[in-house]
Design brief:
By secondary structure, the protein is α+β, with helices and mostly antiparallel strands. The chain contains six helices and five strands. It has a five-stranded antiparallel sheet.
Length: 159
């Protein structure tokens, strides 16, 4: 990504894309028509630990904002890293009716920390198998956070 770019997308409550800005279209490699109505995970890179997305969904479905570094995959198989800020869009009763994500270019030094952490989480998920993958990935994350004395959000926002 370019430093001045902001990728913006909105989804409905089920995670289907209802809006994507031109920068999202450019980096994803899909057309707007191909993106609208699709699950946001259309751009999920297989190197991303599933645990990261579980944390994100749990947080934003509870009505809170979430920050994460994410490796996305373009239609042509190339990839790009982002620092994502996800927020719930709430109805008048405070229930999530959709989500907005704004992504920007991450600092290279942040990726030097995130890449090995995500690799450990992904390895733990794969070694555990489908039934306990999320628990294994979460434990790998918690082990790292305990060593650092930080929450996931603190880690993301301080690197």
């Amino acid at each position: 990504m370019r430093a001045e770019d902001f990728i913006v997308s909105k989804t409905d409550a089920k995670g289907r894309i209802i809006y994507c800005n031109p920068i999202f279209i450019e980096f994803s490699g899909y057309t707007e028509k191909e993106l609208l109505g699709q699950q946001h995970n259309i751009i999920r890179h297989p190197d991303m630990p599933r645990t990261t997305f579980k944390l994100a969904w749990d947080c934003i479905q509870a009505g809170n904002e979430f920050f994460a570094y994410v490796k996305n995959m373009s239609k042509d198989g190339s990839f790009y890293w982002v620092l994502a800020h996800m927020t719930p869009d709430l109805d008048v009763n405070g229930r999530p009716i959709g989500y907005t994500s704004v992504r920007r270019c991450p600092k290279p030094e942040a990726l030097d920390v995130i890449r090995p952490l995500y690799a450990k989480m992904l390895a733990a998920e794969r070694a555990a198998g489908a039934k306990t993958a999320l628990e294994a990935g979460y434990q790998a994350l918690q082990d790292q956070l305990l060593r650092e004395g930080k929450s996931y959000e603190e880690l993301v926002l301080t690197i």
